[in-house]
Amino acid sequence: MLAAGKSTRIATLAQGLPKPLMEINGETILARNLKWLAQSGIEEAWINLHYRAELIQDRIGDGSQLGLRVRYSHEREILGTAGGVRQIASDWKDSLVVLYGDSLVRVNLNLMQQEHRERGADVTIGLFSRMQHPHTGLAGGTVTIGPDGSLTSFNEGPGAESSSLVNAGLYLLEPEAIERIPPASFYDFGRDLFPQLLASGAPINSHLIDGYCLGIDTPEAYGRALRLIEEGSVRLI
């Protein structure tokens, strides 16, 4: 679980809280995500920390009240999305689920894992469609995919609006992909790792979520999330 960000864009609402500790309908985003992972069969979760780390540790503890074991990785300097995972998982031997701690993304995770194994992918990226799924306008990279669901391009920055399929901030990673991340360095999934993997011909699979993607990274996105829930477009689980 990635939770090291400085909450800069939502600071006016967060009032000093890390984004993952902001509440949606009386429960923190982070707690909702951890409970969902536990319900999906995950037994242990790592959380990377930097900004106001003590607040997250105090609130979440060892995770037992949420149904799983939680361990922490402290970053003295922020390492980026991929760099943070590299620090946590340098000796990982199995598939790793990566989820952004300031988003509520819901998908049949067991089905996503099964598809990931069957396709023999190094990476599977969860996607949502701007046209199909409830979302808050998450500023994620857009992708294009082939007929078999394999990734053909990943775009961030200028030109990223060229596709309606958007990175939902949910990944399955094999150790082979994690080893491509340089240790102790700032490294990003969208800007660094995924383009590198595509250029090398590594198999990257996509999985279209069957739920919703509520990125809570700005005051506007937070407001949209609350409206989607209030009007019934999103049913929290």
Compute the number of helices. 8
| SS strand fraction | 25-35%
Could you give a short account of the major beta sheet? Answer: 4 strands, mixed
- Mean pLDDT over the residues: 90
- Lateral strand order in the biggest sheet: 6-11-8-12
Structure description:
The chain has 237 residues and is an alpha/beta fold. The chain has a single domain, classed as Spore Coat Polysaccharide Biosynthesis Protein SpsA, Chain A, CATH 3.90.550. 30% of the residues lie in helices and 25% in strands. It has helices spanning 11-14, 29-39, 53-60, 80-88, 109-119, 175-178, 189-200, 219-230, and strands at 2-3, 23-24, 27-28, 44-49, 69-74, 96-99, 103-106, 123-129, 142-145, 151-155, 165-173, 204-208, 212-215. A four-stranded mixed β-sheet has the order 6-11-8-12. The longest helix has 12 residues, at 189-200. The radius of gyration is 17 Å and the shape is globular. The model has no long low-confidence stretch (mean pLDDT 90).
Question: What's the SSE blueprint?
Answer:
Elements (H helix, E strand, L loop, with lengths): L1 E2 L7 H4 L8 E2 L2 E2 H11 L4 E6 L3 H8 L8 E6 L5 H9 L7 E4 L3 E4 L2 H11 L3 E7 L12 E4 L5 E5 L9 E9 L1 H4 L10 H12 L3 E5 L3 E4 L3 H12 L7
Parallel strand pairs: 1-4, 4-5, 8-12
Antiparallel strand pairs: 2-3, 6-11, 7-13, 8-11, 9-10
Task: Give a short synopsis of this structure.
This protein is of the alpha/beta class. It is built from eight helices and 13 strands. Helices cover 30% and strands 25% of the residues.
Write a concise keyword list for the protein shown above.
single chain, 237 residues, alpha/beta, Spore Coat Polysaccharide Biosynthesis Protein SpsA, Chain A, four-stranded mixed sheet, three-stranded parallel sheet, globular
